[in-house]
Write a structure and sequence with these properties.
The protein is an alpha/beta fold and 401 residues long. It contains 13 helices and 13 strands. The protein has one domain: Alpha-Beta Barrel (TIM Barrel), CATH 3.20.20. The strands form 3 sheets. Strands 1, 4, 5, 6, 9, 10, 11, 12 and 13 form a 9-stranded mixed β-sheet that branches. A two-stranded parallel sheet has the order 2-3. Bound molecules: zinc ion.
Amino acid sequence: MESGSTSLEQNLPVMEGATCYDAPIKSGLRSARQSDEGQVRDSSWRSSVLRTVVRMGQAISKRRLASALLGSRLAQRMWARPVWTDTVRILAYHRVLDVGKRAFPFDHDLISASSALFRDQLRFIRDHFNVISFEDLARAEEAGRPWPDHGVIITFDDGYRDNYSHAYPILRELNLPATIFLATGHIGQSAPSLFWWDLVNYCMTHTSHESVTFDEISSVPISLKTRRKKHIAVHNILTWLKSVPEESKRSFLATYSEKLGVSVPSDIADGMHLTWDEVREMAANGISFGSHTVTHPILARVTPEQLTREVVESKRTLEQELNKPAISFSYPVGDSPNFNQMVEKCVADAGFRYAVSYEEGIADAQISDRYALPRLHVESHDTIREFKAKLMYPGLLLSRL
Ligand SMILES: [Zn+2]
């Protein structure tokens, strides 16, 4: 996960100095202590909403600026100059679907594009860039060559089935490669489970409660009377879930649906994730697969044992199923500080060659850490013009100022 100017991977709470395991844990404890002071929590909730609104405004201004620049002659002359050698733009997609927001019970912010927009985006990439894979990068580096000029790598996180049903046919039609990062524990399961962010959204969509209190987050009841209030509640719940240790997350989710009075059907996730047969078919036709862990935990929040298990087991499963090396990795909720140097070392030690974050930017052969390559987010609200601007002038469109 996840995308959108209001999405959660972009709006994680910044925990200063959180470069080791105990920092996020202390943050979780701090939240617990604050739970004795309703005023503090209420204020924190309002601040979070305000930050979201401010960031949305900033993102819109940047998009307008970039769209205006894109149409200028000066911009076109700049584009004609070969100034982007030895860099790669790595696009971060999640889902490609054709559904309306109101009819969709899961995390709509994860829909990166409709089928039609995705096709338009790929046509632009095909016509103006050199679409490559991580394997191409590795071959260039092994041969001592520079990275391919105007390189773009198309990536998808999580392994939703629409990558096969919606994105893959368009990728084949245009003969373009892509890399899909799988949370291997969700692939091909006989009783598949929802990702936790989809569970949070699903229950919030279906609850008939007009308010709810989650003591772990706030003693102040949360109003759920309107769609907008539910949307804000989801945002803040997911933000909180990403800031606490895995155990706290698990225990919160265990009672979440019950607190909202929602019964989640046992077959709710049927057909939601890729199967191994679909993965193998795509692998035989130009699609590469990398790891997104086994269960999609935030790797800076797990024990060293679970960190190793998530990284090593996912690689082993991918290689057993596909019979080829898995060389790329994507950190779940991959903004700093959700991965750290210990996590990067674990990924490198496991034998991965590259890892991508969810930090926004373009990867530079000279300066980029091969285990923290930035990406360009693709959001469903991007117009094709904004998408083009994002690729051509990525510095103008970073979500964070
Ligand atoms: Zn993810």
